[in-house]
Design a protein that fits this description.
The protein is of the alpha/beta class and 365 residues long. It has two domains: 228 residues, Rossmann fold (3-Layer(aba) Sandwich), CATH 3.40.50.1100; 93 residues, 3-Layer(aba) Sandwich (Rossmann fold), CATH 3.40.50.1100. 34% of the residues lie in helices and 17% in strands. The strands form two sheets. A seven-stranded mixed β-sheet has the order 8-7-6-9-2-1-10. It has a three-stranded parallel β-sheet with strand order 3-4-5, sandwiched between helices. α3 runs parallel beside α4 and α6 crosses α8. It is globular. The protein starts with 8 loop residues before the first helix and ends in a 23-residue tail after the last strand. The structure holds 4'-deoxy-4'-aminopyridoxal-5'-phosphate. 4'-deoxy-4'-aminopyridoxal-5'-phosphate (PMP) binds next to α8.
Length: 365
């Protein structure tokens, strides 16, 4: 009898072919002095993902789950609202899997983001402030999906599979990489866009260490989480959009830390110019927030954060211009010393079925 091949199988084979391009990033140990004391912050090198950002994890996971649940059909149109990295991730991974992609995004996002999405064959529909900005993008994406037969709407802001992606990958990787050094993560710190990173990674890490602090971060000059709605403008693309996304559960998190956008820009610039780590503005923000949290915890705590994307999408932005230093900037109190990249994991390193999660092969860097 010939084997019956389900038509979804070729699509699943294509997804599996991309598996090694998403996640399993190195963990950087960044050594610096902060307020005159030697510090070390651990940061996942998410800029090394397939399309250069942490959002590859979410896009890859949601598309794979879409096939598995039958919500995504081979060749169906993928439609999403995004501030950029999600659009780039869905466009590239979507095209690799043979899907047409339409992306709605606020028109004030960086030119590189728009061009990159177009370069991956996706259609970009820009949404102005007057058309509703971010919330307008979400509404328009839902309207198009409703009118397009076979369309797939990932809905990153509301889809629990977004945080599940990080619970299944980012969390276990951090746990294994930190444990390999004989340490326990005491805090995980991350800027919140959709909240997928902090919620999913946090869930995994808190399961293993109930004492861990999970610290969400937002721009001091344009908060959302601490006010419930968006105030003012900021330049940390990818975080603090216009509302608190449904997947963010503030009651499961520690108090919000706020970092100035100019301070974040300076920190990101210095990571590139002083250490050669080419990352975006939210990564500078995360490093400063991690140092502040560590300071509050006494200086020796093992604090982990994420370097969300690379600096190539910011060539036309303030990241490439001198930024005025203001009183109270944390970056003025940081002296960067050096960094080293700790191992990626090999397939045999981590057994998710092992409740202790001890890595087997991971070397000590
Ligand atoms: N930084 C950047 C550059 C991003 O694109 C995003 C994603 N919106 C984030 C941080 C925040 O990640 P999350 O959506 O998982 O909260």
């Amino acid at each position: 009898m010939p084997v019956q091949v389900h038509p979804i199988q070729p699509a699943i084979d294509r997804v599996n072919g991309l598996r090694n391009l998403v996640g399993n990033t190195p963990l950087y140990a960044i050594d610096c002095e902060f307020r005159g004391r030697k510090r070390r912050i651990y940061a996942k090198a998410e800029h090394l993902n397939f399309t250069g950002s942490i959002k590859d994890r979410m896009a890859f996971h949601i598309l794979r789950r879409g096939y598995e649940t039958g919500a995504l059909h081979p060749g169906g149109m993928i439609i999403e609202a995004t501030s950029g990295n999600t659009g780039i991730a869905f466009s590239a991974i979507g095209r690799a899997l043979g899907h047409p992609v339409t992306i709605f995004m606020p028109d004030w996002m960086s030119e590189e983001r728009k061009r990159l999405i177009r370069s991956f064959g996706a259609e970009v529909r820009l949404v102005s402030h007057e058309q509703g900005g971010f919330l307008g993008s979400i509404r328009l994406s839902e309207e198009l999906a409703a009118a397009t037969p076979g369309a797939f709407l990932p809905r990153q802001f509301a889809n629990e599979e977004n945080s599940a992606a990080h619970e299944a990958t980012t969390g276990p990787e951090i746990w294994a990489q930190v444990r390999a050094r004989g340490l326990l993560p005491d805090a995980f710190v991350a800027g919140v866009g959709t909240g997928g990173t902090i919620m999913g990674t946090g869930r995994f890490l808190r399961d293993r260490n109930p004492e861990i602090k999970l610290v969400p971060v937002e721009p001091a000059n344009s908060p959302t989480m601490s006010t419930g709605y968006k105030v003012g403008k900021h330049r940390i693309q990818g975080i603090s959009d216009e509302f608190i996304p449904p997947i963010v559960k503030l009651d499961q998190l520690d108090p919000v830390v706020a970092i100035d956008d100019g301070d974040s820009i300076i920190m990101a610039q210095r990571l590139a110019s002083e250490l050669g780590i080419g990352i975006g503005i939210s990564s500078g923000c995360n490093l400063l927030a991690a140092l502040q949290v560590q300071d509050e915890m006494g200086g020796d705590a093992t604090v982990v954060t994420v370097l969300c994307d690379d600096n190539k999408k910011y060539l036309s932005t303030d990241l490439m211009h001198a930024e005025p230093v203001k009183d109270g900037f944390l970056s003025s109190e940081v002296k960067l010393l050096r960094f080293r990249a700790l191992n990626r994991m090999c397939d045999a390193c981590f057994d998710p079925g092992d409740p202790d999660g001890a890595p087997v092969h991971l070397g000590r860097a």
